[in-house]
Amino acid sequence: MTKDMRTQISDALKEAMKSKEAARLSTLRLINAAIKDQDIALRADGKSVGDAEILAILGKMVKQRQESARAYEEGGRLELAEQELEEIKIIKDFLPAQLSEDEIASAIDAAISEADATSIRDMGKVMGVLKTRYTGQMDFGAVGPAVKAKLA
Questions:
Q1: Least confidently predicted of 105-109, 116-120, 135-139
Q2: Could you give the residue ranges of the DSSP H alpha helices within 44-76?
């Protein structure tokens, strides 16, 4: 049986402590903090964060760091940009492998047929199917225009 995301992150955190990997340890602590924040937000509804939500959190963290790295590079702060890129690598260790262009195209086609999408008005349904199935495996910001083009 595969471990759930929380266990994987917790085990990696303990391993980073033992091997004294400071950068990895601080990034894993940031991941844990983000998960706990989401737990607290959902606690009022009697829910807790599952693997799908953790994947969404990790995806958001990667996107934030990509934007920060780009801003640092533009500002000439290369050491800070490198630090952000290093954090991205650590976070991506917990994300599933990214789909190739062909796999994304076939996933879009499958989602369109599953959602019985016929027009651009059905784009939300198609994106919902994709997000349920492929969270962490594709960049939905980049996939959106492709879905739109197929439905137009």
A1: 135-139
A2: 51-74
- The full set of domain ranges for the chain reads 5-92, 101-151
Q: Which numeric CATH code is attached to 101-151?
A: 1.10.10
Distances (CA, A) of 48 to 16, 64, 81, 144: 26, 23, 33, 28
Question: What mean pLDDT do residues 11-17 have?
Answer: 93
Tens digits of residue pLDDT in 71-112: 999 999 999 999 999 999 999 888 888 888 888 888 888 888
Cite the beta strand spans of the chain per DSSP E. Answer: none
**What is the C-alpha separation between 79 and 140, in angstroms, rounded?**
29
pTM above 0.85, yes or no: no
Class of 5-92 in CATH: mainly alpha
Q: What Cα–Cα distance (Å) separates residue 128 from each residue in 5, 75, 112?
A: 22, 37, 10
CB 101 within 8 A of CB 93: no
Between the two ends of the chain, the Cα-to-Cα distance in Å is 43
